[in-house]
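can u do me a favor
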């Protein structure tokens, strides 16, 4: 055998990663060929995301980012008004109270045309969980009443997601 112990360790590590990748590809192929009833998608997700908490955090961030970006794009008034309205909602209704507001704010920037764009949310898991558990308040504050079907369907979808996360995080 040639090389140092570090070289051997690196070679072993690369072999393990390749083995995991091949196993993942085989699971995806099976899932695609045989259908989801025979190969549970959870097995594929387990290979992609090593930890349920990471999954919960990333999916929660994505759900919130998609909702807020959609509503920012559909907002009729000045975009800064929407940002300030949502900041106030998160600070006083979800993460804090009227008497003890949180200091959390949505991150935003301007694109080349000077339009305000919302940065992807990057938050700790406990904050993401709190925001997802109070999604009704966020939807009420961001989605106009005229989009009642969207409001209802979005809340139902997030409710199903919460149920799934409760099952995945059970001991």
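np, heres the sequence
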């Amino acid at each position: 055998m040639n090389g140092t112990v570090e070289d051997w360790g690196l070679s072993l590590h690369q072999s393990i990663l390749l083995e995991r990748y091949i196993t993942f590809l085989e699971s995806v192929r099976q899932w695609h060929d045989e259908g989801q009833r025979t190969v549970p998608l959870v097995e594929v997700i387990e290979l992609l995301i090593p930890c349920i908490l990471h999954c919960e955090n990333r999916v929660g961030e994505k759900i919130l980012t998609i909702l807020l970006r959609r509503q920012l794009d559909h907002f009729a008034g000045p975009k800064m008004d929407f940002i300030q309205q949502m900041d106030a909602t998160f600070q006083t209704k979800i993460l804090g109270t009227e008497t003890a507001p949180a200091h959390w704010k949505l991150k935003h920037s301007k694109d080349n045309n000077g339009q305000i764009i919302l940065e992807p949310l990057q938050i700790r898991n406990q904050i993401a969980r709190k925001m997802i558990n109070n999604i009704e308040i966020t939807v009420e504050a961001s989605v106009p009443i005229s989009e009642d079907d969207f409001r209802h369907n979005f809340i139902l979808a997030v409710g199903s997601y919460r149920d799934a996360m409760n099952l995945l995080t059970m001991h």
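The first helix runs from residue 5 to 34. hope that helps!!
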